[in-house]
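[Automated response] Your request has been received and processed.

Submitted sequence:
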Amino acid sequence: MNGQPEPQPIVFVIDDDSALREALSSLFRSVGLQAKAFASTSEFLQMNLPEAPTCLVLDVRLPGLSGLDFQSELAKANIDIPIVFMTGHGDIPMTVRAMKAGAVEFLPKPFRDQDMLDAVQAGLDRDRSRRKNASDAAKLKATYDTLTAREQEVMRLVTAGLMNKQIAGKLGVSEITVKVHRGNAMRKMGAKSLAELVRMADALGVRRTMS
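Generated structure:
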């Protein structure tokens, strides 16, 4: 860890039933989670999403846009937030559609408090992982950008499986020069082995495939 405390997770609730909104907010706060409740999807969309692990508890039946349609709208807008659906009118096709589109859970009302807390925790864990992966990818890209153009080229060729001698012939430089660039690339990327460098190149999407 870099010493930075993780931002406090937040659970959003969208339901047009004010009593249920209040009950869920109290439930989440009772286990130390922040909770923000909204009566409609349009209310929710007026807010900027925080830089913290989040999960959305969403009623399937809402005035205007249904919860399932709202799930589709969020996906189209590249808003990646784990969703726990709840419904008093659940049916199998609805559940299948929600889960196929990436919902964490589909809870029929009335649900047990513990089932809701477990589902929300799973959603927060999923969002935490996604954020960490995105952060790691950004750091890897920033490190790769510190390489010179020639070091990047050598890294792409090395991770494609070419020997130093082949790379030298391809680039029109000496084998010693290739070794220097290869060593620099390994050091700057923090790769302890060629296998690790290959994994990094794959993650960056820069590894060449040689025919």
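Summary generated for your ticket: The first helix runs from residue 18 to 30. Residues 138 and 204 are 10 Å apart (CA to CA).
If you did not submit this request, please reply to this message.
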